[in-house]
Every structure is written in C-alpha cells, then in structure tokens.
Write a structure and sequence with these properties.
The chain is mainly alpha-helical and 396 residues long. The chain contains 19 helices and 2 strands. It has 2 domains: 185 residues; 185 residues, no CATH class. InterPro entries: Ankyrin_rpt-contain_sf.
Length: 396
C-alpha cells in the first residue's frame, strides 16, 4: 500500500474513522459537529421507500444537508461498522438511493476532519474501510448523475481505482465492481492515470495496473540505509506445487511474429531487466533511498486474486500495458515493473535461478502472451522492453 495512503488509513482507524480531531477548517470545534451521527440516527428509523415518511425527514434536516461545508453524513455512514441491525445492506442502499437522488453533491464532500480540502471523499473512506455495502450501493445507483465525476477524484495521490487495489481492507468484489463501472462509464483515464507525482514525497507514478504488480507480496524491515544494499529473501517453494514448463509458456506466436523474429524465440529473448541489479535501484514504493527489506511472497489466493485483477484491467483497457510509471530515473511498464519486483524478491538467487522464477510467474507470462497474441510488433516492444534495449537484444 502507498505509504501516504497507509498513513491516512491508520489515521482513520485511530480516530474512529476520522482524521485530525479538534478544530475544523471552518474554525469550529469538533464537538459542535457530530459528523451527521444524529441525522443518521434519525434516518435509521425512517422507511425511505415510504414517500410520506421520507419527505417528513427531509423537511426536518434539509437545511443541515445543504449546509456548506456539509455535515459529513456520508463519511459517518461510510465509517460505520457493526451496526447491521439499524444499517443493513438493504437499509444503506435504500437511504443512499434516496439521499443521493436529492443531494448528490454530498458524495463529493471531503472529510472535514482532515482540516483541508484534500481529505477523502465518502467513496474513498468506504474503500479504505472495506465498507462493501456502501460502495455497492453507490456503484449500483443507476440514477446517480455525478458518479463519472466522483470516481476519478484523488485522495492521497491516488484515484478511486488505485485506492481499491492498494487498500489494506481491499475486497476483490469491490475491485471488480469498480473496474466494471469505470469501463461502463468510459472512464478510460482511470486505467492509465498515474498516482503520485506533483512533488509528492515517497510516491511513484504507478497506474492501477502497476499497483497490481505487487499485490501478492508484502515488505518487512523497511529502513533507510545509505551504506548497505537491499537485503532480500524469499520463499523458494511454489505454494501450488507447479513446475515451470519452459516449452509451453509464452510460446504462442503468430505468422507475423515468425517473420519478424526469424530464428529468435520470444521466450528466449533476454529480459530488458536481465542485466539490472536490484541493489543499485531505488525501491519503487519507498522513495529515493536504498533499503534493507524482506519481500514476503503472497499466498496462492493472493496470487490468484492478482491475476484476476490484471486480466480484468487489461481486458477493459489494454493501453494500460504501455503506460509507464516514471519511477525514479527508470520508467517501467507494468510488465517491466513485475520483472523488477520478481528480481527484488529473488535477489538471493543467481541469474539462472532468477530467470526460472520469472519463467514460471503467471502474471508475467499472462502479460507476455497477451502482447504476443494481440498486439502489433511495435506495441509488443513498448510493453516488454525499455527503449533501445529491445531492439538491441532482439537482433542479438
């Protein structure tokens, strides 16, 4: 997870779902604004499918709902946990359908407890909390008129899709729903938009697909160390007990590729990262520093989840395969990022061992095979190789 986003998520947990307590940006006291809790308490007793009851509740609270800045009612609901009796999934959907049909701008309100205009929107809050019923209610609302404007909004240098993928409380169901909704709304930029940048510290310009390249692994022991290189270890066992089959993976070629590669097999062309030492590179998610870190491999489920997300992202917008993250001095496409991650994971092995790990990696194999099966040669080179390297190695 992105360091800044992680910090903000922890801040939410520590403060009961909010950020900085005390003074709000409008100068008022936190005690004067209960985050809409009293309004929600009243709403929990209302049947919003009953027009008369709903209109009566609206007449009582309309002034507060339209107050600028707002009363944070949606943030409070997005942070709500465990109150399934009063706020079941059906109740949340009925309420959000009703309130967003009249006050859709509430969905764009930033969390005022962060003391700035840069706090999360309710959809960000719900994704960071893993509040599935809130997110599903919003995404399934066919009458919501500003969803195509809400989803691309950023919090902590990441858009909604970045946050869904990198959240500590991420849900495969919500990631898939969000990807489908972005495709339905034709929000193509969501798939290729970078995070970070803009002078942000300790961030890279990863697209959501770049973020997937490390979904199945975690880091431990991260610390600054200007003297030593990265110290990495890995679990050498394949959790699924699968052996690499070099004769089958990545070997599908079209007649056009046969003509252009002559006697060269794509699978045997050197990786653009083959000669790169991970010890001399800056960590892609940890800022500009050398690190001592242990990369922990994910479980079989985490690897399967990652592959599912990668396939869906590529299916909905394959151009993301050619987007670069401008990471450090070396821009990497998602495929190049995956190889970089694998090299860091297995840097305790010799070159032959590293190549074996790359050869059996399902994500790298999927991207490579997708490119060879579906893309013209110039796009294949752009996805798989750094500028200038592919041509040199390809004709070697």
């Amino acid at each position: 997870m992105d360091a800044k986003a992680d910090k903000e998520a922890k801040k939410m947990k520590e403060s009961g779902g909010g950020g900085t307590r005390g003074k709000h940006r409008d100068g008022g006291s936190a005690k004067k604004n209960d985050g809409g809790a009293s309004i929600l308490k009243a709403a929990s007793k209302i049947d919003f499918t009953n027009t008369e009851d709903a209109n009566e509740w609206d007449a009582k609270y309309k002034q507060k709902l339209t107050k600028k800045p707002g009363n944070q009612i949606l943030h409070t609901l997005a942070k709500m946990e465990g109150d399934t009796e009063k706020w079941s999934s059906q109740k949340v959907k009925e309420f959000l359908d009703w309130v967003l049909g009249r006050y859709h701008n509430l969905l764009k309100e930033r969390d005022s407890e962060y003391g700035s205009q840069d706090g999360p929107m309710p959809i960000h809050t719900a994704l960071l909390r893993g509040n599935a019923c809130f997110v599903k209610a919003v995404l399934s609302n066919k009458d919501l008129i500003n969803l195509n404007d809400v989803l691309p909004q950023y919090f902590s240098s990441r858009n909604t899709l970045h946050i869904a993928i990198t959240s500590e409380n991420r849900s495969m169901e919500l990631i898939e729903l969000l990807i489908e909704k972005c495709a339905e709304l034709k929000l193509d930029k969501m798939f290729t938009a970078p995070g970070g940048g803009g002078g942000q510290d300790a961030t890279t310009k990863n697209t959501p697909l770049h973020d997937c390249m490390a979904m199945d692994r975690t880091e431990e022991g991260l610390e600054e160390d200007d003297e030593s290189s990265s110290s990495l270890s890995s679990d050498e066992e394949d959790d699924e007990g699968n052996e690499s089959d070099d004769g089958d993976k990545g070997s599908v070629r079209s007649p056009e590729q046969d003509r252009t590669t002559k006697d060269h097999d794509w699978e045997n062309v050197k990786s653009p990262l083959t000669a790169r030492s991970p010890n001399s590179s800056k960590h892609p998610f940890g800022g500009n520093r050398r690190v001592n870190t242990i990369m922990i491999p994910g479980t079989a489920k985490e690897r399967n989840d990652m592959l599912r997300v990668v396939k869906l992202l590529v299916d909905k917008h394959y151009l993301a395969l050619m987007a670069t993250n401008d990471s450090d001095k070396e821009s990497r496409t998602p495929y190049q990022e995956r190889l970089y991650q694998l090299r860091m994971m297995h840097s305790d092995k010799d070159e032959e061992g590293i190549q074996r790990e790359i050869a059996k990696d399902e994500v790298a194999n999927y991207i490579r095979e997708y490119c060879i099966r579906n893309l013209p040669r110039d796009e294949i080179m752009k996805c798989l190789y750094h500028r200038g390297q592919g041509e040199t190695e390809f004709h070697a």
